[in-house]
Amino acid sequence: MSISQSHTSDHNHDHDHSREHELGHVHAGGKKDLLIAFTITVLMMFAEVIGGLLSNSLALLSDAGHMLIDNIALLLSFFAMKFSIMPATDKKTFGFYRLEILAALINGITLVLISLYIIYEAYFRIVHPQPVHGTLMLVIAIIGLVANIVGAAVLMKHRHSNLNIHGAFLHIVGDAGVSVGVIIGGVIIVYSGWYLIDPILSILISCVIIYGSWQLLKESVNILLEAAPAHIDIDSVAAEIAKIQGVREAYHIHLWTITSGVYAMSAHVLIDDQPVSGCRELIDEIRSLLSNKFNVLHSTIQLECERCGMGTLCSLPYDIQGSR
Questions:
Q1: CA-to-CA distance for 127 and 105, rounded, in angstroms?
Q2: Core-most of 24, 89, 206, 291, by most CB within 10 Å?
Q3: pTM higher than 0.85 for the full model?
Q4: Closest to 147 in 3D by CA, of 172, 120, 121, 122
Q5: Which CATH architecture has domain 20-224?
Q6: How do residues 40-56 score in pLDDT, each as one tens digit?
Q7: 169 with 156: CB under 8 angstroms?
Q8: Which is the CATH superfamily of the domain at 229-308?
Q9: Which ranges of the chain does DSSP label H, i.e. alpha helix?
Q10: What are 224-267's pLDDT values in tens digits?
């Protein structure tokens, strides 16, 4: 028996569980480190609120507000990671991985919003300068910088393996930048009495935070829009599949990210005419290639002995009339 002008589809539900087990360990360690970072930022937030009120420093109060958002973001990240490892259901066949991406998107948005608010408050401080207790501002800022460095160090090892933790890491790094700015401002105020440095530095630091959050927002939106991962070239994937013996061409490839480090793909694969019994081995070889070389853990492969008769249209969605 051979395949002739027919299609064989296979969906890779039995994907690389060892890889997902590894991701589970990353999640477990990440949740623990998120809680450590949360504890640090909560304690520092209260210290900055008290210090900001006593010193009349906008930079300290703004950083305290930023830390409040950070604490919310860290909690959101923690619960998102907790729910993301829940098993898949009949309604949510990929599970709850996307909760991490939603949390990362919210983190990025809040970074921008709080930065814009800091700029807004700083404007009024420039128009109406107010005296600031530079010494107290300087001491609190130094303590804040140390706390942020510790928090960033705790999350650093996870920042590239998980987009959600990367967002939390950016929050803390942003706070560290604010602390550096406040330290500089405190030194200038102590030695020169130039109070305008407080709101000016607040504006500069806010611009840096907005710039830094852009990549997080861009990556989160791309994942939610089912864009192909930036580091995987579809033409390269097609070329690698075509190198497998018995494969003539791979086309109509759709590649997307489910969550950080978990990718999915569907493709039509044109193969030589062969017995059906040989298809299982061919599909396993394609899966192995996708998993090992491109880290694609979920794949749907449609085998064909002739190119799809509908041409490029067979990969397009229904139009507004509901027809192909």
A1: 34
A2: 206
A3: no
A4: 172
A5: Up-down Bundle (1.20)
A6: 888 888 888 898 888 88
A7: yes
A8: Cation efflux protein, cytoplasmic domain (3.30.70.1350)
A9: 17-55, 58-84, 98-127, 134-156, 163-192, 197-224, 234-242, 279-294
A10: 888 888 888 899 899 999 999 888 889 889 998 887 677 889 99
